[in-house]
Design brief:
binds 1-O-phosphono-alpha-D-glucopyranose; single chain; 2 domains; two-stranded antiparallel sheet
Length: about 300
């Protein structure tokens, strides 16, 4: 295991997003906005902040919108330029800093998160890398979650997985880890299981969609059969590496995670970002209060 700094980040974005139909009939769920940025942009910003310069998107043949988003939009740029809308022009012209490149890989069959990560094998090669699930949006005023994890990974020279505590009745929605206890924010992982029933869960520490993985994960994925939900699970490949002695730490990052793969998570994230927004905070607060009052939810006397 190497303690090299991560440079490449993988974004599995080939899911169907059925929870958000009909919106996701034409708009990939990663393109759903929180205020004025799509979810994918938040994840990409976090990866770049952590030091990544190669962004690998695992897409399917229907997801042109993600590639288009990071591509040039000449007509729009011309229109904005002519209209003198220079701030917007800058946002459209440079969605990524100039040192960052994008790679798009097609996942031909939807065989699960593990399979999606395996699709990045040739692009990643023999170095540690990050995986970010853009549905998991992490709000934070300080350093991003992946930066915190990448720093930790460099220190320990092993894999790092983001975790948060969840109520026991929710374990069947997550990968769950068992650790040897924690020192500060990190604890060495002993076992990991995908979506266990509450009575079978080894703990209530749930995996959040941020991983720093060693390149050895690809060999493990290649020999991983279908697991929970009939899919090739990343969790199972990590579990097999743990069983053969690989070092992975669970990391309780600083920040609040919103599960934007669910309706309520997307709403909560929008509320949080609006209330923390320079210009929208005040009008958002007023509007929320008004909605509560008008719906008779609060009693103002
Ligand atoms: C995936 C992982 C799971 C993890 C979760 C975090 O599940 O398989 O281990 O806890 O992301 O969001 P999914 O939510 O894609 O079913």
């Amino acid at each position: 295991m190497t303690s090299k700094r991560i440079r490449k980040a993988v974004f599995p974005v080939a899911g169907l997003g059925t929870r958000f139909l009909p919106a996701t009939k034409t708009v990939p769920k990663e393109m759903l906005p929180i205020i004025d940025k799509p979810l994918i942009q938040y994840a990409v910003d976090e990866a770049i902040e952590a030091g990544c310069d190669t962004l690998v998107f695992i897409t399917n043949r229907y997801k042109h919108a993600v590639a288009d988003y990071f591509d040039k939009a000449y007509e729009l740029e011309q229109k904005l330029e002519r209209a003198g809308k220079l701030v917007q022009l800058e946002q459209v012209r440079n969605p990524l800093p100039s040192h960052v490149r994008t790679v798009f890989v097609t996942q031909q069959e939807a065989l699960g998160l593990g399979h999606a990560v395996l699709c990045a094998k040739e692009v990643i090669g023999d170095e540690p890398f990050a995986v970010l699930l853009p549905d998991d949006l992490i709000w934070n005023r300080g350093e991003g979650a992946l930066k915190q994890m990448a720093d930790h990974a460099e220190r320990i020279g092993g894999g790092v997985i983001a975790v948060q505590d969840v109520p026991r009745e929710k374990t069947s929605s997550y990968g769950i880890v068992a650790t040897r206890g924690f020192e500060g924010r990190a604890g060495r992982i002993e076992a990991m299981v995908e979506k266990p029933a509450p009575e079978d869960a080894p703990s209530t520490l749930a995996v959040v969609g941020r991983y720093v993985l060693p390149p050895g994960i690809f060999g493990a994925l290649e020999s991983t059969g279908r697991g929970a939900g009939g899919e090739i699970q990343l969790t199972d490949a990590i579990a097999s590496m743990l069983a053969s002695g690989s070092h992975y730490d669970a990391y309780r990052f600083r920040g609040t995670r919103f599960d934007c793969g669910t309706h309520i998570g997307l709403i909560e994230a929008t509320i949080r970002f609006a209330l923390d927004h320079e210009k929208l905070s005040e009008p958002a607060r007023i509007s929320m209060q008004k909605a509560l009052d008008e719906l008779g939810v609060t009693d103002n006397g």
